[in-house]
Amino acid sequence: MPREEEPEAAAGVGAHPAKDRRGPRVNAPLATPPPDEVDEPALAAAELTTVDRYYLAWSQLQTQRGDELQSSTQEAEELSAFLAQEKGMKGRGGKRPVSPSNLRRYLLPFRIYQLWAQQRVRSGTPSLEAIAQECAAQGITAQHNKPITTAYLAGQVEVFERRWQALTHDHTHTPP
Questions:
Q1: Backbone phi, psi, residue 106, to 5°
Q2: In the chain, is it the N or the C terminus that has fewer CB atoms within a 10 Å radius of its CB?
Q3: What is d(CA 58, CA 78) in angstroms, rounded to the nearest whole number?
Q4: What local confidence, expressed as pLDDT, does residue 12 receive?
Q5: Is the distance from CB of 81 to CB of 116 less than 8 angstroms?
Q6: Distant-in-sequence, close-in-space partners of 152: CB < 8 Å, separation ≥ 6
Q7: What distance in Å separates the CA atoms of residue 105 and residue 127, rounded to the nearest whole number?
Q8: How far apart are CA 176 and CA 115, in angstroms?
């Protein structure tokens, strides 16, 4: 009768279980694979979009500030200035900062994505119900203070997963 392998033996001599939580591991190749080995759809899906870059800047601002601004207008203005001054990202035409009104529409999905990504670290399939409950607990609401619903979240899952994959494959950033 075969014995089950003990965890210590599987991990190797002298290995100890991790005591701290770890984020997802980034598995990005350092060298570009030969052209015949590149999976074009997967490569395209893993590329950062402009909105992904807005998210990264927003996330950096959240970390620097330590708290969120209460006004989405003020937050969008600050993000616009940060993108222009710190990241060199300008709006259409490349002369003016990205419009705060353009950025404002992304703030709610960015907040929700952070919660989704935190669950994604813990499980492969985040619970939409748990995310909706966490949004309610944190006071994250949709327009006119309506609660975030699982139906709304279900419509965001594809975008969130694509962003997760892009950020995970971007070896300069590890998702939250």
A1: -95, -15
A2: N
A3: 9
A4: 38
A5: no
A6: 142
A7: 24
A8: 9
pLDDT at residue 84, as a whole number: 94
Give me the residue label for tokens 């570009």: 32
User: Could you tell me which of 153, 118, 117, 111 has the C-alpha nearest to residue 132?
Assistant: 153
pLDDT at 54 over 60: yes
3-class secondary-structure state, position 95: coil
At residue 147, the 3 state secondary structure works out as strand
The tens digit of pLDDT for each residue in 75-101 reads 999 999 999 999 999 988 888 999 999
Q: What is the rounded CA–CA span in Å between residue 54 and residue 150? A: 25
d(CA 132, CA 25): 26
Residue with tokens 């962003």: 163
Q: Where are the alpha helices (DSSP H) in the chain?
A: 7-11, 40-45, 50-65, 72-86, 100-122, 128-138, 150-169
Burial (CB < 10 A; 0-12, 13-18, 19+), residue 153, is: buried
Nearest residue to 76 (alpha-carbon basis) of 116, 115, 110: 110
Query: Residue 108 above 80 pLDDT?
Result: yes
Structure-token pair, residue 66: 């330590």
